[in-house]
Write a structure and sequence with these properties.
- The strands form two sheets. Strands 6-7-8-3-9-10 form a six-stranded mixed β-sheet, sandwiched between helices. A four-stranded antiparallel β-sheet has the order 2-1-4-5, with helices on one face.
- It is of the alpha/beta class.
- Helix content is about 35%, strand content about 25%.
- Helix 5 packs parallel to helix 6.
- It has two domains: about 140 residues, Rossmann fold (3-Layer(aba) Sandwich); about 60 residues.
Length: about 220
């Protein structure tokens, strides 16, 4: 199963304007839904960016399955090992729901028929039915867009999902459904799911909770 670990990680803002993270050590593994909670400005998004390899720590190490991200091909790492789900969905507006999910597999050069069959299966797995396949994001509800975004994340083949406020733009019922999907992916399919959020209900539904305050993390 996948594992992400941070060992004594600190991150300083460019220009010397203080630290976003200070001496953070924590771990996330497959089969577990982990939540990192904290107020705005606590360092949550910076933490997620470091785990995704979008930024590099000022000090310390970020390890994926025991390997330091500093030694890895980060483009490949983001294509194959980790996948992100965003609060604002980040779907391609000119691609249909089906085409959005096909995109990561198309980029790998998989056969077209195989790609479409897999995309349909992934959309079905998150509750998106055939009648919605050809709709563009603007014609989908927020909950439907987030389900498509999760299906697209799964299409990469990555086993570690990093989610930034995945229910932040959704109503209570749709937020609950998205959490059910993420919990199922972890508990029944072995994915590692890491959610950064300020929502206490997500923390209550998670298996492991860290609290981040002023760049310092503690296990709750």
């Amino acid at each position: 199963m996948p594992e992400l670990r941070l060992e004594n990680v600190s991150y300083s803002y460019k220009g010397g304007n203080g630290k976003a993270l200070s001496g953070v050590s924590c771990g996330f593994s497959g089969g577990v839904v982990s939540a990192v909670i904290g107020p705005s400005g606590s360092g949550k998004t910076t933490l997620l960016s470091l785990m995704a390899g979008l930024d590099r720590p000022s000090d310390g190490k970020v390890l994926f399955s025991g390997e330091d991200l500093a030694t890895l091909d980060l483009d490949r790492y983001r294509r194959e090992d980790v996948s992100m789900v965003f609060q604002a969905f980040q779907l391609f507006p000119l691609l249909t729901a089906l085409e959005n999910v096909c995109y990561p597999m198309d980029m790998k050069g998989a056969p077209d028929a195989e790609v479409k069959a897999q995309a349909r299966q992934l959309l079905n797995s998150v509750g998106i039915r055939k009648k919605l396949y050809r709709r563009y994001p603007a014609n989908l509800s927020g909950g439907e867009q987030q389900r498509v975004a999760i299906a697209r994340a799964l299409a990469t083949g990555a086993q570690m999902i990093l989610a930034d406020e995945p229910t932040g733009n959704l109503d209570t019922e749709n937020g609950k459904r998205i959490m059910e999907i993420l919990i199922d992916l972890a508990h029944n399919h072995g994915y590692g799911v890491v959610i950064v959020t300020h929502d206490p209900t997500i923390a209550e539904a998670s298996d492991l909770v860290y609290r981040l305050t002023d760049g310092i993390i503690v296990n709750v």
